[in-house]
Q: What sequence folds into this?
């Protein structure tokens, strides 16, 4: 494993075998500067107790927005209250990636090779990381899914776009998720790298690809806002045995629902894979 680190005044990136693991930097023009660091260190916050969500803002001045922000995620989505929009596809142009997994104690995180993109409204966002949550974070018509996958993207304009995929335990084996679980580190602060173990995030998308869109935030400290949130309407079904393994690894790591306030949630009818 080879690590390179750029000038901390610009973008701080660690490359492990070609997979970009992004660190917090101060270059406001780079989208990487707005995503929390992806390292194997254990965070100073948690999902329960005195370091839980209701205390995040008091743990660190950088986390103040977790309490003061008005565009926070996740949110409850009521289908009948959404604004139906013309079909505008999310175009997923994903390539396979080598496997780089991090267990940071609060989430299982998958770093992604360069070259995979989400195209929407004439803009391109590069896929950098996946995060796994149990239970799900967003509620659709009062229902919170068994779990949720966040696919985190960014571009050089400084924009962040996150596609959230609800997951439900069932009977369908998802080989991509199973490959991830087979290699996932079980101990907080550990990572696992497999150059010859390929995964493609396109196989973690549901078959039916209608989706919701709203303006939100990251769902973990420092709770950055101005994030474009896309929530798939249909869940991805996975084997119950695999869900049990995922739950054992990540535990209860979902942020409570945040007030939607005056924000509008749009509903779109399609997404495509190129």
A:
């Amino acid at each position: 494993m080879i690590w390179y680190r750029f000038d901390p005044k610009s973008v701080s990136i660690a490359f492990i075998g070609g997979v970009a693991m992004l660190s917090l930097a101060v270059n406001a023009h780079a989208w990487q500067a707005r995503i929390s660091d992806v390292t194997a260190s254990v965070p100073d916050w948690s999902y329960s107790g005195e370091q839980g969500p209701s205390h995040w803002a008091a743990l660190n001045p950088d986390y103040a927005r977790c309490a003061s922000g008005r565009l926070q995620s996740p949110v409850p989505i009521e289908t009948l209250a959404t604004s139906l929009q013309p079909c505008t596809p999310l175009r997923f142009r994903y390539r396979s990636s080598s496997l780089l997994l991090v267990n940071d104690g609060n989430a299982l995180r998958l770093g992604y090779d360069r070259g995979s993109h989400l195209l929407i409204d004439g803009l391109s966002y590069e896929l950098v990381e996946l995060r796994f949550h149990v239970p799900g974070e967003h509620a659709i018509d009062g229902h919170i899914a068994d779990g949720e996958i966040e696919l985190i993207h960014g571009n050089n304009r400084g924009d962040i776009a996150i596609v959230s995929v609800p997951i439900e335990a069932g009977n369908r084996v998802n080989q991509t998720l199973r490959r991830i679980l087979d290699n996932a580190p079980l101990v907080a602060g550990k990572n696992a790298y497999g150059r010859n173990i390929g995964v493609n995030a396109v196989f973690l998308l549901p078959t039916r690809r209608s989706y919701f869109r709203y303006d939100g935030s990251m769902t973990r400290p420092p709770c950055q806002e101005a994030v474009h949130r896309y929530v798939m309407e249909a869940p991805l079904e996975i084997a119950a045995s695999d869900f049990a393994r995922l739950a054992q690894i990540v535990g209860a790591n979902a942020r409570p629902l945040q007030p939607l306030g005056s924000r509008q949630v749009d509903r779109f009818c399609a997404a495509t894979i190129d």
